[in-house]
Design a protein that fits this description.
alpha/beta, Rossmann fold, 2 domains, 7-stranded mixed β-sheet, 5-stranded parallel β-sheet, elongated
Length: 294
């Protein structure tokens, strides 16, 4: 009996489904990719039913759904709508990685953990209220880190802290504004690690501001578009020492992010009941790290 092909259905909130996500899916061993753009939560029901009711038994795990796009809130709504279609064992596996936020945040935190135990250390997250920053803060808090939530808007930082606390974060969360030189200096002072998660092409920290920090041991910049989010960190850095600190650039973190993304896609086809959200994606990355020597 021939094995049915692995089909990945790609729901993207943008007009044109992400080429990046499509290429990664194909490189991850997907046999057939069915991309849908301009998706909203109200659009998914019939498409999900098409995935659920065309195969049965062990073959059901050969169909899966990937939710991407640049609009993370829309993608989260799509995920909820997809899951609401399932009943009993009539379901398919689904992964959420809109804007690459779950895989990137997981990779950044795991790179930090190569060098420091995050339990009870102080980590400053710059640009924390963006899609990646929020998830970095959530992962760090869930493991007991003292997280400084940095944003130009104290209101947005405070709102994020409240949401993380409500979701069960166990580390301390300190919302802080980074607007202005004095506030930024207060934010980075005494941090054991700094992670910049701001928008592409926006520099958040000058090199003279962080290179002389005595407490800082690790600095991670997730901005791949010039100028650097943290000035002085090369985009390809992957644990090299700069100014006495271990540093990672976006491509350095991205190597692990890509491994996590590909492994997560493969995981979708191991059973028909995976829901790969932030925590599940992080767990996949953690297992990859435990099995490798970096």
């Amino acid at each position: 009996m021939s094995t049915k092909p692995k089909i990945l259905i790609q729901f993207d909130s943008d007009q044109h489904p992400s080429v990046f996500d499509s290429v990664v899916a194909i490189d991850s061993g997907v046999d057939q990719l069915l991309p849908f753009g301009s998706m909203e939560a109200v659009d998914v029901r019939e498409l999900v039913h098409g995935a659920m009711f065309t195969r049965g038994g062990d073959s059901l795990k050969r169909t899966a759904i990937f939710i991407g796009g640049s609009r993370v809130k829309s993608a989260e709504q799509i995920l909820r709508a997809v899951v609401d279609c399932f009943f009993g064992n009539v379901r398919v596996s689904v992964m959420l990685d809109a804007n690459g936020a779950n895989t990137t945040a997981s990779a950044a935190v795991l790179c930090l953990q190569r060098h420091l135990s995050v339990n009870e250390i102080t980590v400053g997250v710059l640009g924390a209220t963006g899609s990646v920053g929020q998830r970095v803060c959530r992962l760090l808090s869930s493991q007991g880190a003292n997280v400084r939530i940095g944003s130009r808007s104290l209101q947005r930082a405070t709102s994020l802290a409240s949401r993380i606390q409500d979701s069960g974060g166990c580390g301390s969360l300190t919302p802080m504004t980074t607007d202005g030189p004095h506030n930024l200096e207060q934010f980075i002072q005494d941090c054991d690690a700094i992670i910049a998660t701001g928008a592409a092409g926006v520099q958040l920290l000058k090199k003279e501001k962080w290179q002389d920090l005595s407490a800082c041991k690790v600095a991670i910049d997730l901005n791949a578009v010039p100028p650097e989010g943290i000035e002085g960190i090369d985009v390809t850095s992957a644990g090299q020492v700069t100014a006495g600190k271990l540093v990672y650039g976006a491509i350095g973190v991205g190597n692990l992010k890509m491994k996590i993304h590909k492994r997560a896609i493969a995981t979708l086809f191991e059973s028909n009941d995976h829901i790969l959200d932030l925590d599940a994606v992080y767990d996949i990355g953690k297992k990859l790290e435990e099995a490798s020597d970096f």
